[in-house]
């Protein structure tokens, strides 16, 4: 049975010592980052040393479940080789241009640098891995904690919901009703006003509400007058309302 990473990257990936079977390279990996980048891109060159140092520290701390792979948008192989020389992780072979295009389309990459994190099944944890790394300010434990938090929520987007100002209170309550499991905390913060009737009485058993004004690390920016909801703990994240 082929691994999801063989379907994404092909039969072989590039290591610092040569090609390696993809299944072997990703065996036991439960957090996989795909790094879309290029040497000609100044923001990429600024982020790559930060990402490389973060990777080295995480792997150095014996987190064998963690892996990164570089997907190059360099204009030629010499540019790729020069850039990859400074990276300690895996790479999609430069010759595999068709697969690079498939990956960019699959993950809707519209600009670089982009860092997408996947779980062991190849499902998206977050497409904003760059912010996860940068917001940690060199603290690798914060990187892993943020990714674990996203992973508990099933991935695909982020832990936080759309801003409350864009949704009716009824939509908000339906969304909260889908949060299940003991040990889940719903954190509400921001500058807006909580919808009338939202309180402990409308939350499922085992869910605790932390009031407006609470600060939570690694949750992203809160802007404007809306309210953001963050789910922390074990259970299911709320689903996006259709209205």
Automatic annotation (TrEMBL):
Q: What is its EC number?
A: 1.8.1.8
Family annotation (CDD domains) = TryX_like_family
What is the residue range of the signal peptide feature? none
Taxonomically, the superkingdom here is Eukaryota
Where does this protein come from, organism-wise? Saprolegnia parasitica (strain CBS 223.65)
Coiled-coil residue spans: none
Q: Which EC class does it fall in? A: oxidoreductase
Spell out the family assignment given in the record's similarity comment: Belongs to the nucleoredoxin family.
Name-wise, this protein is protein-disulfide reductase
Record keywords, A-Z: NAD, Oxidoreductase, Repeat
Domain Thioredoxin per the UniProt entry, residue ranges: 2-152
């Amino acid at each position: 049975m082929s691994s999801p990473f063989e379907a994404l990257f092909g039969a072989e990936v590039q290591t610092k010592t040569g090609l390696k079977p993809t299944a072997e390279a990703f065996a036991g990996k439960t957090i996989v980052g795909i790094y879309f980048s290029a040497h000609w891109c100044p923001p990429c060159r600024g982020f790559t040393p930060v990402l490389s140092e973060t990777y080295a520290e995480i792997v150095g701390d014996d987190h064998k479940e963690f892996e990164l792979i570089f997907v190059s948008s360099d204009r030629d192989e010499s540019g790729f080789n020069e850039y990859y020389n400074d990276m300690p992780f895996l790479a999609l072979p430069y010759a595999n241009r068709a697969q690079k295009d498939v990956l960019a389309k699959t993950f809707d990459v519209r600009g670089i640098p982009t860092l997408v994190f996947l779980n062991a099944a190849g499902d998206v944890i977050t497409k904003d891995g760059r912010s996860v790394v940068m917001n940690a300010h060199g603290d690798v434990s914060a990187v892993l904690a943020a990714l674990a938090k996203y992973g508990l929520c099933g991935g695909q987007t982020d832990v936080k919901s759309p801003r409350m100002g864009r949704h009716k209170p009824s939509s908000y309550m339906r969304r909260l009703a889908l949060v299940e499991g003991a040990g889940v905390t719903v954190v509400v913060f921001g500058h807006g006003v909580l919808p009338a009737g939202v309180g402990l009485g409308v939350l499922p058993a085992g869910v605790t509400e932390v009031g407006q004004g609470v600060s939570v690390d690694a949750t992203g920016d809160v802007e404007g007058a809306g309210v953001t909801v963050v789910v922390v703990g074990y259970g299911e994240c709320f689903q996006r309302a259709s209205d």
